[in-house]
Design a protein that fits this description.
The complex is a heterotrimer of chains A (262), B (234) and C (237). Chain A has 262 residues and is of the alpha/beta class. Chain A has two domains: 130 residues, D-Maltodextrin-Binding Protein, domain 2; 111 residues, Periplasmic binding protein-like II (D-Maltodextrin-Binding Protein, domain 2). In chain A, a hairpin with a 2-residue loop joins strand 10 and strand 11. The longest helix of chain A is centred in the N-terminal third of the chain and has 13 residues. Chain A is globular and about 55 Å long. Chain B is mainly alpha-helical and 234 residues long. Chain B has one domain: MetI-like fold, CATH 1.10.3720.10. Chain B has ten helices and no strands. The relative contact order of chain B is 0.17. Chain C has a domain of 161 residues: Rossmann fold (3-Layer(aba) Sandwich), CATH 3.40.50.300. In chain C, the strands form two sheets. In chain C, strands 5-6-7-3-8-9 form a six-stranded mixed β-sheet, with helices on both faces. Chain C has a three-stranded antiparallel β-sheet with strand order 2-1-4. In chain C, helix 3 packs across helix 4 and helix 5 runs parallel beside helix 6. The longest helix of chain C is centred in the last third of the chain and has 16 residues. Classes of the chains: A alpha/beta (262), B mainly alpha (234), C alpha/beta (237). Chains in contact: A-B, B-C. At the B-C interface, helix 5 and helix 6 of B face helix 2, strand 5 and helix 3 of C. The structure holds adenosine-5'-diphosphate and magnesium ion (MG). Magnesium ion binds next to helix 1 of chain C.
């Protein structure tokens, strides 16, 4: 086994499977779903998909530069702009998960009594309890800003703390300072360091988080694996993908809901 | 405290069970860093010697630049190397982005100034000791540099180890140019960053301990090699 | 073989940051014999030897060998006032000048072992050179200088820090080298040593040659009062 690992490391990858690169967001990687999907993809399509795990902004820049063959993100406006600019021929919705509001278990702002996401945020603002924002222009950050916009309250003040970091780091920060934070459910469930924190609000359709697949325009350069990207797209909307996505459980909970149209 | 102990336990578990993924990323870390170190030494050590032996007008400027480059943030190096290697960049045709080679390139840029600068300082002192003798014996410039490299090997080992330490623990640049791709470019440091992001502190600390252990083993091994070489240098 | 000697100095002057260290010096070194530079501390003996050897460029005047400078340098060797040991074994130190000249490893080793036997350094061959005692170090420096069989050997106070027995030993090696044809140029402030070794004396004072000539005549009756005072052991200002 040691020898195998050594060989794996020293030799270039065996040329059997076709390799393609896909930029995905940190929250997708952190959910653990990729560890279920990638082996199935490798087995069924003979595609070796390498995930470049970055923030949404960087993922789209990688696509724009033609450094990856496809992008899987969740930031609708940015995705539509990406397609409009010609970097991808189209945008294909695959699945969604949802955001949840997480905070200190004793819930000082009383989120448990809120009836909508906007009300929950308004309670945090009114109580001026610390709130950690991703502040990194990611899909999650954009979703959060849209929610604040809907409350009509500007998220400003001592209590509002943009950290400019990925989901995991933002969760770590929130745990550290006993703050509320908007997280995607997958990252929250897969998160290991949940001491003193609890899921306090969920279920509002406004917290819907749509993932979409963007094959990068193969005309950008000769090295883009356009065929592979198309094959991956076909697989991602297949029934097999649907059963794997809907069947994925973390701590007994379903994380993702498949909603691609065939 | 609990996470630190759990980290120790995790490190032990990974080592005792010879975890395949751990072995893979550890070997990759070593391969990337050692390759970068060899290249950095091949460039940096003679450069340091040359700067010690040679007197020319821009010498001070070159040395000052070298020392300034040591402080270059790895993330900036990573970004610049990314922009150069990107398929839409000048070296895009080489298709090196998100490969171990790209990581090696970034690390070479990061550690060569450090290696050259430490080597230069060591050899400058040795040169002031040897200067008269080597001039008297009519040694050519190449022979002078070679003599300084050979006789200053202890200090040069320190330079190389400093370079190794900086490279093996580097994460910002290789994250950008390597992409932290599982099975292709994931190394110890990027795995640690990933696990920290996941809140898996025990695993992250465990990997960190293995990283420190690796650096210690390399350091001890190189000192041991120097101590056991006896007649070898003449 | 074309010789590097004679060496001619014409108005040769050495300066450091505007200060005159030695010169102007007019002097010719013929092809054989032992020339000894004497004079009080700071009179310029070291500077004169370094200037002749070309370690320092002259500010004025000229130092002319009978061969182009690079070739002439190949035929000289220099033993420094403070011996310089390469941080290597004694064997590697001895072999070093030969290795610089492209002699093979095995050839250089054989020669080094041979000269080590002559200089009583065989037991120290594997020892690290910087750890040698003062006497051993001087023997090493001299052996290393002579291993290339130089036409000219400069030796700057080679016995300055040694006791009587060690001094005698070094002197023996120096006279043996001179007898086998090496032109010896030596600096010393030890009058006894100068009397024992010199064929020709250069008496330096304040960076200039105050008096020079054949050793026998100089020691029998110096023509300047300062040289006479120096020989008596008086303090010369
Ligand atoms: N590198 C140097 N820089 C400045 N002054 C020097 C240097 N080398 C020698 N001197 C000065 O030149 C004078 C002659 O020194 P030196 O030749 O060493 O005399 P000696 O060997 O006869 O004792 C001394 O006053 C000494 O201080
Ligand atoms: Mg002197």
């Amino acid at each position: 086994m040691l020898l195998r690992a050594l060989l794996l490391c020293l030799l270039p990858l065996a040329a059997a499977a076709e390799t393609m690169r896909m930029a995905v967001t940190t929250s997708f990687e952190n959910s653990g779903l990729s560890e279920v999907l990638l082996p199935a993809i490798a087995a069924e399509t003979d595609l070796d998909v390498e995930l470049v795990v970055v923030g949404t902004g960087q993922a789209l820049r990688l696509g724009e530069a033609g450094d990856v063959d496809a992008v899987l993100v969740h930031a609708r406006t940015a995705e539509e702009a990406f397609v409009a600019a010609g970097h991808a021929p189209h945008r294909r919705e695959i699945m969604y998960n949802d955001f949840v509001l997480v905070g200190p278990a004793d819930d000082p702002a009383g989120l448990a009594e809120a009836t909508s996401a906007t009300e929950a945020l308004a309670r945090i603002a009114a109580a001026e309890v610390p709130f950690v924002s991703r502040g990194d222009d990611s899909g999650t950050h954009k979703a959060e800003l849209a929610l604040w916009e809907a409350t009509g309250l500007p998220p400003e003040g001592e209590w509002y703390r943009p950290v400019g970091a990925g989901m995991g780091a933002a969760l770590n920060t929130a745990v550290g300072m006993g703050a509320y934070v908007l997280s995607d459910r997958a990252s929250w469930l897969a998160f290991g360091n949940t001491e003193g924190m609890a899921l306090l609000f969920q279920g509002d359709p406004a917290l819907f988080n749509q993932y979409a697949y963007l094959p990068v325009d193969p005309g950008k350069n000769d090295d883009i694996a356009g065929d592979a990207a198309a094959r991956l797209e076909d697989w991602l909307v297949s029934e097999r993908a649907q059963s794997l996505i809907d069947g994925y459980r973390v701590s007994g909970e379903q994380l993702f809901t498949f909603n691609a149209t065939r | 405290m609990g996470d630190l102990l759990a980290g120790l336990g995790e490190a032990l578990r990974l080592i005792v069970t010879l975890d395949a993924e751990l072995i893979e990323i550890t070997l990759r870390s070593l391969r990337v860093t050692l390759t970068a170190l060899v290249i950095a030494c091949v460039i940096g050590l003679p450069l340091g010697g040359w700067l010690a032996v040679r007197r020319f007008r821009l010498r001070r400027a070159v040395i000052a630049t070298l020392n300034a480059l040591i402080g270059l943030p790895p993330v900036v190096v990573g970004l610049v190397v990314y922009l150069l290697l990107s398929r839409s960049g000048p070296f895009g045709v080489l298709n090196l982005l998100f490969t171990p080679t790209a990581m090696i390139i970034a690390q070479v840029v990061i550690i060569t100034p450090l290696v050259a600068s430490i080597a230069h300082q060591a050899m400058r002192d040795l040169w002031s000791e040897y200067h008269d003798l080597l001039i008297s014996m009519n040694a050519t410039r190449g022979q002078r540099i070679l003599t300084l490299l050979v006789d200053g090997r202890r200090a040069l080992l320190t330079a190389a180890l400093a370079g190794f330490g900086r490279a093996i623990g580097e994460v910002g640049a290789i994250m950008i140019v390597g992409g932290n791709i599982d099975g292709a470019t994931r190394v110890l440091t990027t795995a640690i960053a990933l696990e920290t992001g996941r809140g898996q502190f025990a695993l992250a600390v465990g990997l960190g301990l293995i990283l420190i252990g690796l650096a210690l083993v390399v350091s001890w091994a190189s000192h041991w090699v120097l101590r056991t070489e006896r007649q070898g240098t003449w | 073989m074309v010789a590097a000697l004679p060496l001619t100095l014409r108005g040769a002057t050495l300066r450091r940051r505007g200060r005159r260290l030695v010169g102007p010096v007019d002097l010719t070194l013929g092809p054989c014999g032992v020339t000894v530079a004497i004079g009080p501390n700071g009179s310029g003996k070291t500077s004169l030897l370094r200037m002749m050897h070309g370690l320092q460029r002259v500010a004025e005047g000229a130092v002319d060998w009978s061969l182009p400078e690079a070739e002439a340098r190949q035929r000289q060797a220099y033993v420094f006032q403070h011996p310089i040991a390469l941080r290597r074994s004694v064997l590697a130190n001895l072999a070093y000048p030969l290795r610089l000249r492209g002699v093979t490893r095995a050839g250089a080793r054989a020669k080094a072992e041979e000269i080590a036997a002559r200089f009583d350094l065989t037991a120290q061959l594997g020892q690290s050179a910087p750890s040698l005692s003062g006497g051993e170090m001087q023997r090493l420096a001299l052996a290393r200088a002579l291993i290339t069989m130089p036409e000219v050997l400069f030796a700057d106070e080679p016995c300055a820090a040694l006791d009587g027995a060690a001094t005698r030993e070094i002197e023996g090696h120096l006279t043996a080298a001179a007898a086998s044809g090496t032109r010896l140029v030596m600096a010393t402030h030890d009058m006894g040593q100068a009397r024992r070794i010199a064929d020709e004396v250069v008496f330096l004072l304040h960076g200039r040659i105050h008096e020079s000539g054949p050793a026998a005549r100089f020691f029998a009756g110096p023509s300047t009062p300062e040289a006479a005072a120096f020989l008596r052991g008086d303090i010369v200002e």
